[in-house]
Design goal:
- With 202 residues, the protein is mainly alpha-helical.
- It is 74% helix and 0% strand.
- α1 (2-18) packs antiparallel against α2, α4 packs across α5 and α4 (79-86) packs parallel to α7 (125-142).
- It is globular, with a radius of gyration of 21 Å.
- The two termini are 22 Å apart.
Length: 202
C-alpha cells in the first residue's frame, strides 16, 4: 500500500541522512525489491515518492548549512579530512595501523589538535576541508600505485575489518571478537549474493 511505501521511504531516507553508507545499501536492496515485486506501470510513482521524501528529509539540513556555513552541504563537509587521513605516505605500509591512524588524524584535525584551530577559524570549516582535499588529491595523483594499494586494503578492511579498527574509539573491548563477527556477517552476505546471482534468484 502507499502507506507502507511512504513509511518505508521515510525510514530509509532518515537512515541515509544519519549513516549514508548504510543508506546506500538499503536503497540498493530497495531498488532490487521494487524491480522484482512492483508492476512496471507503478515503479515510476514509487520511485518518485521515494525521491521526494529523500529531498524533504535532506533539504532543511542543506538550507541550514547554507545559512550557517556558507555552502549548501547536503550531508557532511568532512570528506576532505577523511581523504587526507586515509591517503598519505605513512598509510602505504603502516607497521602499526592504529598508531598511524591516530597520528594522522591528529596531524590534520583541528578537533584533535588545538594548534590547528587558528587555521580552521581563518579559513572556515568548508574551506579547511577543501584545502585538505586538494592536498590529498595531489598526493594521490603523484602516487597512483600507493593509492591503489591503500584502496584495495580499505576494501578488504570494509568487509573483513581488523581488530585495530574497533580500538579507534571507545574502550576497544572484544575487538578481535567484533572483527570476526563482522567478517562472518560480510562473508555470509557476499556468499548469499553470489549464490543468488548464480541461480538467478533476484
Amino acid at each position: 500500500s502507499w502507506r507502507h511505501i511512504i513509511l518505508a521511504s521515510l525510514l530509509v531516507a532518515i537512515t541515509f541522512f544519519v549513516t549514508p553508507t548504510l543508506g546506500i545499501g538499503i536503497y540498493s536492496a530497495a531498488a532490487l525489491f521494487v524491480w522484482r515485486n512492483i508492476r512496471a506501470a507503478r515503479r515510476a510513482p514509487v520511485i518518485g515518492v521515494a525521491i521526494l521524501i529523500l529531498a524533504a528529509v535532506l533539504t532543511p539540513w542543506t538550507i541550514r548549512n547554507s545559512i550557517v556555513m556558507g555552502a549548501p552541504i547536503v550531508l557532511r563537509d568532512n570528506a576532505g579530512m577523511q581523504l587526507a587521513v586515509a591517503n598519505h605516505p605513512g598509510a602505504v605500509d603502516p607497521a602499526d595501523p592504529l598508531k598511524t591512524y591516530r597520528d594522522r588524524a591528529e596531524a590534520v584535525s583541528p578537533y584533535l589538535n588545538s594548534e590547528l584551530r587558528p587555521e580552521l577559524e581563518r579559513l572556515g570549516e568548508v574551506e579547511y576541508n577543501k584545502a585538505l582535499e586538494r592536498e590529498a588529491k595531489a598526493w594521490i595523483w603523484d602516487n597512483p600505485g600507493d593509492f591503489l594499494k591503500i584502496t584495495l586494503r580499505h576494501v578488504t578492511e570494509y568487509y573483513a575489518p581488523r581488530p585495530w579498527q574497533f580500538r579507534r574509539s571507545g574502550t576497544g573491548g572484544f575487538a578481535t571478537l567484533r572483527a570476526l563477527f563482522v567478517t562472518l556477517i560480510s562473508l555470509t552476505g557476499l556468499l548469499s549474493l553470489a549464490l543468488a546471482l548464480s541461480f538467478r534468484k533476484w
